[in-house]
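Hi C.,

You asked whether I'd gotten around to modeling the 240-residue construct. I have! Everything is below, sequence then structure, no commentary in between.
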Amino acid sequence: LEVRDLLQRTMLRAALEALAEADIIILVVDATTRPSSRETVSTLTALKENAAPLHVALNKVDIADKEAIRAWENWVDTELVGSVYRLSSLTGEGVDTLLVGVRADLPVGPFLYPEQDIASDPVRFFVAELVRETIFELYQQEIPYSTFCQVEEFREGQDPVYIQVQIFVERQSQKGILIGKKGRAIRELGELARTKVEHFLDERVYLDLWVKPLKAWRKNRAYLSQLGFRLPEDDESSVP
């Protein structure tokens, strides 16, 4: 829960607001690590006033050592009130057990959205996220965390559907890395992302990718507001 810039602070604020309204909480932790004192304090602070049922998922148990797993289980028993599950998102081990526990605690209620809707976000959001997901898969180190994708144009009713996505980065050097020598990297990114978008839309797509540097956009209030983030209204130096 440590924040390093305005973007992270904005995202943390949104997460805490969602936490306060949650009917159930699933806390996913990396079982290959050990619970630290700082992590314990920050997590307890975030959860202390929430009465929603808590389910703690210890992920990566397929590669974690037994002592680390027991350390997390002891931490939950000592500090939290909730159910603990050993699972691996890679192999699927334990996922069914977690789902059974979650279903048992979910409240019964009416549909809040039309039954055929899969999410409350628009299609443009998912297209941008599919492009950014592909960036995470292809690039390493700081590049994925310095990018933000936004759909600038979406022409439906034609074959193929034309979609223009702007990829924002923080530095000119990152733009060069994304594009690659003679445009090879951006072409590979476009081909892989287009396949995902076509599968999502079930239509042929012409995906047009553009890269634009926005210096230190993650720390700039004007840029973040322009990109659609709902920023905290209090002073930037304060803690959410």
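If it helps when you're writing up: The helical segments are 6-20, 37-47, 66-79, 95-105, 123-138, 172-179, 184-201, 221-226.

Thanks,
B.
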